[in-house]
Design goal:
By secondary structure, the protein is mainly α. The protein has a single domain, classed as Globin-like (Orthogonal Bundle), CATH 1.10.490. The protein has 7 helices and no strands. It has helices at residues 13-26, 41-54, 58-72, 85-101, 106-123, 127-145, 151-178. It is globular. The relative contact order is 0.14.
Amino acid sequence: MTADYNGWADRPEDEREADDAAEEHYAPAGSAAAGHVGLSRDQMALVQATWAKVAPIADTAARLFYGRLFELEPALRPLFGQSDMAEQRRKLMQMLALAVASLDRLETLRPALEALGRRHVGYGVEDRHYGLVGAALLWTLEQGLGDEYTMSVRDAWTAAYTALSTIMQDAAATDREAA
């Protein structure tokens, strides 16, 4: 989806908010609209626009991300002990790109996110690690965007990350319970 949503951003804010509320209220469970409750169209547009500025420096951003993650929690480094970090950085940025592009149709991404959450259980990832990953992601975006990293950008990315990580965590919890 493009960032302008066919003139969406040019409409008065109260009109956009009313449409968002109606879409969320009338969205059937499991529908694409229901998949992004908690993330407004404006937030989706903001995440997509800021991602477009970070994507050209993907490897640098991924290096910053993992550096910050290991700084926040050095005990996570061994989870990546046998990993090819160049490949890991590529996978991270590829998944983020897919997630950002799919924010308006999150249900189509759900199976991949659930599988990713289940795989992470096997790697030793715990629920508390998701908060650290979110903090490292926000810090990385702040570094990459500089003055363009505003409170609105932070809030939009927080909402997006929360939606994505919740799907992963729910699948991981189901997997743990089944074991």
